[in-house]
Amino acid sequence: MLTRQRKELLLQILKQDGQIVAKTLSERLNLSEDTIRRDLRELAKEGLLERVHGGALPASPAMGNFAQRQQISADAKPAIGRAAAAMVRPGQVVFIDGGTTAVQLARHLPRDLRAMVVTHSPSIAVELAEHPSIDVLMIGGRLFKHSIVAVGAATMEAISQIRADIFFMGVCSLHPEAGITTGDYEEGCVKRAISAASLRTVVLASQEKLDTAAPFQIAPLSQVSDIVVNAGVEERLIAPYRAMGIKLTLA
Q1: Where in this chain does the record put each HTH deoR-type domain (predicted)?
Q2: Among 32, 113, 166, 239, which residue's Cβ finds the most Cβ atoms within 10 Å?
Q3: pTM score, two decimals?
């Protein structure tokens, strides 16, 4: 079998099974484990999958820039934002992450809601600038341009001084085994710190982010209380999270 044919077969199997276990697949295809691992490394360099210990998982499609990500699941994100906004109660301290879905959340907060929103995202702060009764606490730091959020030591220091009632986390990847992952190490550290400083962590995840993985772990799923996902998502994609006791809201 030619290298190109092998790689196409691996991608086909990954799409069909949702994961690749190198040892199992080597026996199934009568190929050496080293050959499969080499092919997986090369496919990972091309951004076509995410290497994990012992095999591979699908790569997240949500790794493009902010403008590109606005076009992904454009119909689903307003509904997810609306459902998440309905979870906020008057008087709460709410941390809103960056990202295109989080912007929709901010946009759907009721005009009469009195609360404090903490954010390290200029996009969220600008979205709430005209809200009549929400106080906005903007956390600064070095701008991570991919997600348009602040990261770094100054950001982490500010987060350590805050205790939020609820954290709405935007993600690029969510997987029952890999947990919550992202493509940038520093961004992962910031998200993890915010989650640890919040009583409740709610993950906002459109369907294309489920059952995918990125290089850096944010947190295990044991830290997640809720997932808001678009209605119509395949039950097989969300059943593992239900089994973990995570509350699912279908928007």
Answers
A1: 3-58
A2: 166
A3: 0.80
